[in-house]
Amino acid sequence: MNPRISPIKLFELCPRLLTHIPAIGELPKDVAISARLRHLVKLRASQLNHCGYCQKMHSDEARSDGELQAKLDVLPAWRELDCFNNEERAALAWTEALTLVSTKPVTDEIFNEALLVFGEKGLVELSTIVLEINNWNRIAVGFGFQPEITLER
């Protein structure tokens, strides 16, 4: 399946996407959200949005930043497994709530847990990461971007 518009063509037509969308998720130095957590958040949102292009990208980046493949394999089941810590759980719950906001409300429980773990500034900054990836997912899915996947061993 070919993309409706290729990533290269899209960025030729609208180069500001390459600066404006990433700027949403850029974190100040005083916010301690690790690269590994950012990748888990981006990967989970991409899974929920059925964005194979971003799933591939953020899985690759997560592994490059030291995340274990075994953990990436079970990310959709994060609620049921002990391998996810409290910070990851709060971030993933918040990610799912913001990503799925059109289908169900963001509960006080999810908000309060994320606030407890990240504080106000950290929660706002975490939200910017979710906003950024949801923007990219909609672009990639809408234009039919395809990841490069090697099927040979």
UniProtKB/TrEMBL annotation:
**Stretches assigned to the Carboxymuconolactone decarboxylase-like domain:** 31-97
Quote any Pfam family the record assigns.
CMD
Query: InterPro entries under this entry?
Result: AhpD-like, AhpD_core, CMD-like
Q: Name one GO molecular function term.
A: peroxiredoxin activity
NCBIfam families recorded: ahpD_dom
Question: Which PANTHER family does the record match to this protein?
Answer: 4-CARBOXYMUCONOLACTONE DECARBOXYLASE FAMILY PROTEIN (AFU_ORTHOLOGUE AFUA_6G11590) (PTHR34846), CYTOPLASMIC PROTEIN (PTHR34846:SF10)
The name under which this protein is listed is: Alkyl hydroperoxide reductase AhpD
- Species the sequence originates in: Planctobacterium marinum
Q: Give the classification, highest ranks.
A: Bacteria, Pseudomonadati, Pseudomonadota, Gammaproteobacteria, Alteromonadales
